[in-house]
Amino acid sequence: MTPDQGPSAIVDWLLTSDEPAARWIALTRILGRPDDDTEVESARAAAISDPGTQELVSRLPDWHHPQKLSGHNSPAYAPNLLGLLADMGVRTGDDPRVDQAVKALTRYSDEDGRLASPAIFPRISSEPILSALLCDTHAILDVLVRYGHAADPVVVRAIDRMGADFGQTSQGPAWPCVPSNGTRGPGRKHDSCPMVTLEGLRVLASSSVQRCPIPRSEAVEAASTVLRTWTTRGESKPYMFGHGAAFKTVKWPNFWYSVLTVLDVVSRLPELWSEDGRTAERRALAELAACLIAYNLDEEGRVVPKSCYRGFENHSFGQKKRPSAFATAMVYATLRPLDDLRFDIDSIDVLSLGSSKGGNGRVRPPKTAR
Fold first, then answer.
1. CA–CA separation, 313 vs 310, rounded Å?
2. Which of 15-19, 53-57, 213-217, 327-331 has the lowest mean pLDDT?
3. How many domains does the chain fold into?
4. Average pLDDT, stretch 290-315?
5. Could you please report the per-residue DSSP string of 293-329?
6. Are residues 64 and 104 in the same domain?
7. Whose C-alpha in 43, 189, 236, 287 is 20 to 30 A from the C-alpha of 181?
8. Is there a single domain that holds both residue 283 and residue 195?
9. Alpha helices for the chain (secondary structure H)
10. Domain check: are 275 and 363 in the same one?
11. What's the N-to-C CA distance of the chain in angstroms?
12. What is the pLDDT of residue 238?
């Protein structure tokens, strides 16, 4: 499971790796060191100047020039690249190219205040359009909040709009897919969208959001809806959101709906497993964490990527031949808030868990993974 507060083999390996971003994640998100810690400052500075980080910065697209995108999980989608850079420790003020790319995200909005993405989506139109689907606006908001723009009037308006879009879906309190330009995403009209809901919850969980548009209790219920999507996977399946081996095996970099994404977001709401009567949620979290461990860690507790987006072969998380310190750090950092569930997680028999309707999605875990 996750490492203890004291030294461990995995943490030691991360702290001595040649990937400064992995060292920074280990120091801050696993060991809990403050930002002004000398080692933290040194690791973050090294991560920013690292050639791999600089190469990613150079990829940032011109937001004002529509690109052809295969979907919102595209590595070319600016919010995805900016989110990855934030995971590596990059912040506002570290690089003018990043600052410019982040600020550009505030330029386009629809009449209701939802932030929009200028792009060419072949499934929708052969011409450039401004898409304000919630998987656009929530992803954009997530980046803007992470880079310190929560108080920007455009962002405040979009967050308020996000609260207005929240409501009751067929699965429970969550965000649905709201139409934009006369079109909406796939799936049934009144269903919740798991990814949109996770993105919205991640925005609201940020300490920099001063005025939350929905009560904390409703955010917790929305997270419960996400977990219920997992627990009812044998009876129903949201369109395009399965829970088989592809969901349990993280595709690196982690841009889209996966077991890592779910745990990263819902773990920010500890009421899900600490409040009395939350036994179903506690069980779901334990199952998901057990799957993250079994499907992604090798016998030594490290991540050797099994699935990668193309174009990241020069990064440890973009190849399948050796352990990735960055990917390993991300997994352990995600598991860290769930330390209170260690016993529950270790008691899960991963091989007994079914998958989405139509398959079992099983993989035999390494013997020492749990």
1. 7
2. 213-217
3. 2
4. 95
5. HHHHB-TTS-B--SEE-TT-TTSGGG-SSS--HHHHH
6. yes
7. 236
8. no
9. 9-15, 20-25, 38-49, 51-58, 78-87, 96-104, 134-146, 153-165, 194-204, 216-231, 245-248, 259-266, 271-274, 279-296, 325-335, 342-346
10. yes
11. 6
12. 78
Sign of CA dihedral 167, 171, 174, 178: negative
Taking the CA atoms of the chain, what radius of gyration do you get in angstroms? 20
Retrieve residue 345's tokens.
Answer: 């997680």
The one-character DSSP state at 27 is I
Q: What percent of the chain has pLDDT over 90?
A: 72
Same domain, 222 and 345: yes
Q: Are residues 227 and 118 in the same domain?
A: no
Write the Ramachandran bin of 181: left for phi over 0, alpha for psi from -120 to 50, otherwise beta. left
For 160, the domain range is 51-210
User: Hey, what are 42's tokens?
Assistant: 């040194």
Nearest CA to 339 out of 279, 276, 263 is that of 263
Query: Would you call the peptide bond into 34 cis, given omega within 30 degrees of 0 as the criterion?
Result: no
Kindly give the interhelix angle for 325-335 and 279-296, rounded to the nearest 10 degrees.
170
Copy the structure tokens of residue 344.
Answer: 């529950």
Does the pLDDT at position 211 exceed 90? no
- 7 pLDDT exceeds 50? no
Q: What is the mean pLDDT of the chain?
A: 89
Q: Which residues contact 136 (CB under 8 A, 6 or more apart)?
A: 72, 114, 115, 116, 117, 180
* 270, pLDDT greater than 60: yes
* Count of CB atoms situated within 10 Å of the CB of 262: 27
- In contact, 11 and 302? CB cutoff 8 Å: no
pTM: 0.91
Whether 12 and 145 map to the same domain: the answer is no
- Condensed to tens digits (0 to 9), the pLDDT of residues 70-119 reads 778 899 999 999 999 999 999 999 999 999 999 999 999 999 999 998 87
